[in-house]
Specification:
Shape: globular
CATH topology: Collagenase (Catalytic Domain)
Largest sheet: 5 strands, mixed
Distance between the termini: 39 Å
Radius of gyration: 15 Å
CATH superfamily: Metalloproteases ("zincins"), catalytic domain
Number of helices: 5
Number of strands: 5
Length: about 170
């Protein structure tokens, strides 16, 4: 695997970002590229936003008037990735509603770390041209890959050691 640069920007102020989250996101993105045997140097941008911003993006790009948890904006056009002048594959953008991640972690009774890692892995697979939208075998392949990667980084479904106490 080449060098991987994960740029993370917090564009929300609804939820406090716990320590270690940036490292977790970077680790999750790198794990996907390692499992997928991605050889080139790569760059990914990750943005944390709130539900209002996510609802606006989801409506603008998917015509769905609701906040979702994560959106992926790949540069892959079906044949190639976009490369920078110095040969780095710009894989695309991942946009995570941090507010929605907190909600879903609580609803699913698992850690915020598990939820965020899942969203990063899920979105990274989209950047690498995986798709679950049509269901069937493609969806099964993607779900199995997600769980394999999360297990590899120590966040399988049964792990509950990493909890959060967020009072917002």
């Amino acid at each position: 695997m080449g060098k991987v640069k994960v740029l993370i920007k917090n564009n929300q102020d609804v939820c406090k970002i716990p320590s270690g989250v940036r490292f977790l996101i970077k680790r999750s993105c790198r794990a996907v590229l390692q499992i997928e045997n991605f050889r080139d140097d790569a760059e990914i941008s990750v943005f944390f936003i709130d539900n209002r911003q996510m609802r606006d993006l989801n409506f603008k790009y998917r015509q769905k008037d609701t906040a979702t948890d994560v959106l992926s904006f790949p540069t892959y056009d079906g044949k190639n990735y976009t490369y920078s002048g110095d040969g780095v594959a710009i894989l695309g953008d991942i946009v995570i509603s941090f507010e929605k991640a907190v909600e879903q972690a609580r609803e699913n009774s698992h850690s915020l770390q598990r939820e965020l890692a899942y969203l990063a892995v899920h979105s990274m697979l989209h950047l690498l041209n995986y798709n679950h939208e049509n269901g069937g075998l493609e969806e099964v392949r993607m779900r199995e890959k997600e769980e394999m990667i999360l297990s590899q980084i120590g966040l399988n479904r049964s792990v509950t050691y990493a909890t959060f106490n967020h009072e917002d």
